[in-house]
Amino acid sequence: MKEIKIEDAVGCILSHDVTKIVPGEFKGRLFKKGHVIKEEDIPKLLDIGKEHIYVWEQKEGELHENDAAIRIKDLVLGEGCYISEEIKEGKIDFFAKKMGVLRVDKEELLKLNMLGEIIVSTMHNNTPVKVGEKIGATRVIPLIINEEKIIEAEKLINEKIISIDEIKPKKAVLITTGNEVYKGRIKDAFLPVMKEKLEDYGGEIVKQVILPDDKEMISSNIIKAIEEDKVDMVICTGGMSVDPDDVTPSGIKDCNGEIVTYGAPVLPGAMFLLAYYKDTPILGVPSCAMYSKRTIFDLVLPRILAEEKLSYKDIAAYGNGGMCLNCGVCSFPHCSFGK
């Protein structure tokens, strides 16, 4: 780049964006890369402390920050994402093209950021996102970067680092157990909670079945929901503790499906159960879901709806960040819970 005094800059073409900052009022672009300096621009540039401008004279092996950012974007961004319309100051923002679960390859992301001079920043892996939500960004630190740095990144990263797995509307049967509910002594409180949480993702509870504490009835109704009602998932509520008369976990186990876990390092939600019957997920939801705004169910549900088959390791990994802080104003999923 060639440095030129502002007073001598009329007719010159800016090689970079010029930013104006007025504390508490404004931060944004004053002049765009490629702008031809006019006489009336000189006072504006002096007002923001610019006494020189830089004209970039491109040399072989060098890249402007915006061109380098485009190549990084192509390297990083996968399915279900789109970018900001405008690229400026070497920065490109990433957005979700569809409602889904954000996937971030954390190891590849670390490798890329360890190179220096280029950065990629994202939301947390496995965060549920809405259409149009900002999920990350890339930025090139120097105005002009050696192309070798970008080539090194392209050789290093073999898989897209960021993608969105689409959440698809699902139909569920809710099986609520408990003699006290079955006999009408108390009113069930699970249905409105589960209904609202599924509807947030476009799903629905197609039927609720209320059963006594009878593991044979629980097993047979789970199988009926999957094989006859053809639902996408079964949610079991009530009777999830270790008390002898709480038989819901036994009823789920007797379906002869695959038990992934009974117990999770998440609070609220430690007594959570996850199983699969012929690839259909069965979720045993503990009583905390009735009164706690966020529980293990909120962490697992979007991943299930994005058709991810969860493993014991996936559940165990929630231990780091698995304690909900019960904030006065809940900002989930944009908080530490489950991250």
TrEMBL record:
Q: Please give a single GO biological process term from the UniProt record.
A: Mo-molybdopterin cofactor biosynthetic process
Gene3D superfamilies linked to this entry: MoaB/Mog-like domain (3.40.980.10)
Assigned GO CC terms: cytosol
Kindly name one Pfam family recorded for this protein.
MoCF_biosynth
User: What cofactors are annotated for this protein?
Assistant: Mg(2+)
What is this enzyme's EC? 2.10.1.1
Q: What does it catalyze?
A: adenylyl-molybdopterin + molybdate = Mo-molybdopterin + AMP + H(+)
* Residues of the MoaB/Mog domain: 173-306
Q: Which SMART domains match?
A: MoCF_biosynth
The stretch of residues making up the signal peptide is none
Q: So, what pathway does this thing act in?
A: Cofactor biosynthesis; molybdopterin biosynthesis
User: What GO terms are given for molecular function?
Assistant: metal ion binding; molybdopterin molybdotransferase activity
Keyword line:
Magnesium, Metal-binding, Molybdenum, Molybdenum cofactor biosynthesis, Transferase
Function (record text): Catalyzes the insertion of molybdate into adenylated molybdopterin with the concomitant release of AMP.
Family per UniProt?
A: Belongs to the MoeA family.
> What is the protein named?
Molybdopterin molybdenumtransferase
Q: Which organism is it from?
A: Terrisporobacter othiniensis
